[in-house]
Amino acid sequence: MFATSPSELWSVERMLSVSGLEFMRAILDGSGPHPPIARTLNYRLDMVEEGRVVFRGTPLFEHTNPLGTVHGGWYGTLLDSAMACAVMTRVPEGSYYTTLEYKVNVTRNLPVGTEILCEGKVSHAGRSTGVATGELRGAADGKLYATGSTTCLIMTG
Fold first, then answer.
1. Residues 112-140: tens digit of each pLDDT
2. Residue ranges of the Thioesterase domain (predicted)?
3. Whole-prediction pTM value?
């Protein structure tokens, strides 16, 4: 279920009452709301485990730039989501995170309509920072379309 209004998102209190891994699993199993941006950009959470998440998505014509190629923001948003949500799986109950910075390297043009898997993996999760990397690959052939890295700030509620 995609949230369609702010009232459908979890309250801060409810989000802080579970670990980040529990929060991410709730989104995956449908007991928590899927982020509204995922509907807009045509992607969804596909897999969650501690330190790793995978999103599945397909760019549409609506995600192209004036040249007709998939906009770099589509790559960036999926990588930011996967990498930061991977960090979230390592955030303890009573804490939350925010992205401090992320970097994206596009390795090749992603044709419109190509289904992808976007994986985020944690390399470090401490008390105050989390670091993760990501890869955006073709679901059918495993071709690498983009990579990324991120640093997230972990804060107590």
1. 999 999 999 999 999 999 999 999 999 99
2. 68-138
3. 0.94
